[in-house]
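Request: When convenient, would you put together a sequence paired with its structure tokens?
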Amino acid sequence: MDERLIAGAREAWRAIEPAARRMIDYIWENPELPMMEYKAEAALSAWLVEHGFTVERGVCAMPTAFRAVWSNGEGATIGFLAEYDALPGQGNRMEPNRAPDGKRAGHACGHNLIGGADTGAAIAARHAMEALDITGTIVVLGTPAEEILWGKIAMFRDGAFDGIDVLLTSHGDYQNGAPSRPCLACVSSEFVFRGESSHGGSRRSQNALDAAELTVQSVERLRAHQFSDAIIGHVMRFAGFMPSITPDEVRLWFTVRNADFERAEEVYNLILPIAQDAARYTGTDFQEQFISASRGYLPNDAMAGRLHAAMEVIGPPVWDDDDLAFMQGLSEHCRPGQPFNLDRTTAIHTEGVDPYGQDDGEASWYIPLARANWAYPTGVLLHNWAATANSGHESQMKGGVFAGEALALTAIDLFTDHSAIAAAKAELAERVGGRELSPPRVGGFEVMTNNPEAFWDATWVSTDKLAG
């Protein structure tokens, strides 16, 4: 990459970095549940407008989604993905110990960093393009509800990704670098069992909890022989008030994960009739309330190589003694007595399968995607209060800043070398091969877009026409 382009991109990032830091802090201080990210969406949209982007808010009929566009003439179109939702029950003060802050949610997956860093990267790239007279178009997609693998699936289905040549994003992980490896596909659905309440000593009731427990027990009994290759998780979001009242409604939220999307769907379709049969055996009613599904990442070595080249220019995050002391304290709380381990290099990571799901994984099967990772200590668990504390601290701010600068530099590289984009598209086509792809179904659209509170307080009723 030309030194003039590198200097221009890095100068543009340095100019925007203070605002990116403030945005990262603001989103961390105001954690919001998926599809309820009103403050984050408003702040990011206003920031983009301030820098000359045309912003469509409420895109795809989703109140907390946006699509922002800035163009400097004909050329490639590069999309930046901003995430900003938080996780329920994971609020914590910025302390290296369990210190609940009384908030309903917390950024235990670091999406405050993604929202601020990725949006900042897009703004920096926009100013670098103008200064360097580079043509092309930047699209920033504000994508809510990643934590339930929902927002990008709905936005992709409804056209928000149309016309984008490549995608850039970021995320905290246990390694710094540019991954080119899959993560797990996931299918997510809520099963609702409805019976009749009565005295707990009665033998005549239709006990919804019996149906839910029978479902879980049956799934566990069959797992070893029918779907030992799948990772199956569940929570009961509502299971009654007290033992002397038989529950008349129980909600069982299932997720099925597998490296292969078709296999995850297949296993889900094995579990669904188990739940239906459990309802029949217990005399209860059953309703499937499908939520979402997503493929895992499609690796793209061409994109990862370009991103990692930018990281080599920048260098990995550099943590000072205060940063390390904070992260060591968190690690000791999560993994007492275990050695402290923190990646301080950068690399292209191709081995293995990451254990999480991501809804931009779905998009990566249609549009080449590169993701900048920055490192958490291995002792700090994601989706844990410790990750919330860490994502608000300077130690992780340095990771987000590293990722933002790398994305801005990569965008300028791609805008000025169309052969790199062509190579990424060719690799995607080769990896997809002859598969006929279609986006997964999107569940609960009406409630998610009009009354997401009902989803989170477990009172929602799906209007989707599904099995049940």
